[in-house]
């Protein structure tokens, strides 16, 4: 199975190249970013070894993105005492109860009113 590379650039002409991405993961990533309906099974990987490599690489990406999503949720919650937690949960695709567990894991209080009581700088 041949490996692909992805080139990501910005408006200033800076570029970053990702080498060694399996073709099936590259296609799935593009489909996910574009919000393409319907997940397709791997098409390029045919052998057991190629499929295991695709699964392993996909698992690493998922774990990384889940950690990144948690940090983004915490950052959104830290924007202020009136950050809309229902919107954060909806954007993360999870129920509010799970959002509260994630925030608790990162030291964010469930009751922000008690946390900010008496602080004039946040009013």
Output the keywords.
123 residues, mainly alpha, two-stranded antiparallel sheet, 5 helices, elongated
Helical proportion, percent range: 40-55%
What's the story with the biggest beta sheet?
2 strands, antiparallel
Query: What strand order characterises the main sheet?
Result: 1-2
Give the amount of beta strand, in percent.
Answer: 5-15%
Structural class by helix and strand composition: mainly alpha
Q: How many H/I helices?
A: 5
* Uncertain segments: none
What general outline do the C-alpha atoms trace?
elongated
How far the N terminus sits from the C terminus, by CA atoms, comes to 58 Å
Q: Calculate the mean pLDDT score and round it.
A: 87
Total beta strands = 2
Round the Cα radius of gyration to an integer and report it.
Answer: 20 Å
Name the helix and strand elements from N-terminus to C-terminus, one letter apiece: EEHHHHH
Write the layout of secondary structure elements.
Elements: E1 4-9, E2 15-21, H1 23-33, H2 48-77, H3 85-92, H4 96-105, H5 112-116
Helix pairs in contact: 2-3
Structure commentary:
The longest helix is centred in the middle third of the chain and has 30 residues. This protein has 123 residues and is mostly helical. The model has no long low-confidence stretch (mean pLDDT 87). The radius of gyration is 20 Å and the shape is elongated. It has a two-stranded antiparallel sheet. The termini are far apart. α2 runs antiparallel to α3.
